[in-house]
């Protein structure tokens, strides 16, 4: 398989620290002031740490100009560093572990991402999951963005490189069925509450008492219908204002039937839901000093 090119200081630093890939070569931008005989500006602390690790790991270095790095990173921001590495191996997950009653730690909380197609959304969710301490993230193999790409790693700010429990799932229905049978609480993220047949979980309930699997659906279609009967409770982010029935009252102009900003981006909504569920374990989440 062809090598990947990781770009951006955070991602490169994470890959060097995690050591989950074969390190092929570091492509580093030429520092123009030095070439012109002028004093170079101080190196950023993260770049200094990266260069130390590159030397420590015996990674070959090749200097490049900015335009060459732009090409390696497909025109995306690279901070003057691109790391050539082997592809990341994402394992497959068949089932979640059966919870142990003797476990003294907090019950696990996993995410199941059911068809997140935008690499930016996927990366942002992984970043939040890593930051807040989610136990693991399972990703539907079909209908999802490929998680093992430089674009997702960049969007995750390197979290993809650090997380050991990011897995692919070939059958989400089997995973959720088995989890429910083994005593996991199944939560479904909903765009809005009070849809007929939904069991409303209000503002998310408590993540203290039981191992929890949170289902996050596709950006447009939501959670696929085959999984809906398995959901114990729904969670959503309540807006600060009441839903607007119509923004335009003139029938001749009524092309918008509801508030176009009535919901959040899936990665933002996931972050708020996780902050609520996991924040109850070490309240408060936000500290003001």
Structure description:
The structure is a single chain. Helices cover about 30% and strands about 15% of the residues. It has about 290 residues and is an alpha/beta fold. The strands form 2 sheets. Strands 7-6-5-9-8-10 form a 6-stranded parallel beta sheet, sandwiched between helices. The model is unreliable at about 30-35, about 195-200, about 200-210 and about 245-255 (pLDDT under 50).
* Annotation field: number of helices: 9
The H-level CATH homologous superfamily of the largest domain, spelled out, is SPOUT methyltransferase, trefoil knot domain
Q: What's the mean pLDDT score?
A: 83
Terminal-residue CA separation: 50 Å
For the record, the CATH architecture of the largest domain stands as 3-Layer(aba) Sandwich
CATH class descriptor of the largest domain: Alpha Beta
- The strand line-up of the biggest sheet is 7-6-5-9-8-10
The arrangement of helices and strands along the chain is EHEHHEHEEHEHHEHEEEH
Instruction: Please give the domain count.
Output: 2
CATH third-level topology of the largest domain: Alpha/beta knot
Largest sheet: 6 strands, parallel
> Poorly predicted ranges (pLDDT <50, ≥5 residues)?
32-37, 194-198, 200-208, 244-257
Overall geometry comes to: elongated
Give the amount of beta strand, in percent.
Answer: 15-25%
Instruction: Assign the structural class, choosing from mainly alpha, mainly beta, alpha/beta, alpha+beta, or little secondary structure.
Output: alpha/beta
The value of Rg in angstroms is 22 Å
């Amino acid at each position: 398989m062809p090598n990947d090119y990781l770009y951006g200081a955070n991602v490169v630093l994470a890959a060097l620290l995690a050591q989950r890939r074969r390190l092929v070569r570091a492509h580093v931008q030429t520092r123009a002031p030095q070439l012109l005989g002028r004093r170079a500006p101080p190196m950023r602390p993260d770049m200094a740490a990266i260069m130390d690790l590159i030397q420590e790991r015996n990674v070959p270095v090749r200097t490049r100009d900015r335009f060459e790095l732009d090409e390696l990173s497909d025109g995306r921001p690279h901070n003057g560093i691109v790391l050539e590495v082997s592809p990341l191996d994402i394992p497959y997950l068949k089932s979640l572990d059966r919870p142990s009653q003797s476990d003294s730690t907090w019950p696990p909380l996993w995410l199941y991402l059911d068809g997140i197609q935008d690499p930016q959304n996927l990366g942002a969710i992984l970043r939040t999951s890593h930051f807040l301490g989610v136990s693991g993230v399972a990703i539907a193999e079909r209908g999802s963005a490929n998680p093992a790409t430089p674009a997702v790693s960049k969007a995750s700010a390197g979290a993809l490189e650090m997380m050991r429990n990011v897995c692919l799932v070939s059958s989400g229905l089997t995973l959720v069925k088995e989890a429910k049978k083994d005593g996991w609480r199944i939560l479904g993220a909903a765009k809005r509450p009070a849809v007929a047949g939904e069991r409303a979980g209000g503002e998310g309930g408590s993540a203290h008492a039981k191992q929890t699997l949170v289902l996050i659906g596709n950006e447009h279609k939501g959670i696929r219908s085959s999984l809906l009967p398995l959901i114990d409770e729904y969670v959503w982010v309540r807006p600060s204002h009441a839903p607007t029935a119509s923004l335009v009252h003139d029938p001749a102009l009524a092309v918008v039937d509801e508030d176009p900003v009535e919901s959040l981006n899936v990665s933002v909504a996931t972050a708020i839901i996780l902050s609520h569920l996991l924040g109850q374990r070490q309240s408060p989440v936000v500290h003001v000093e």
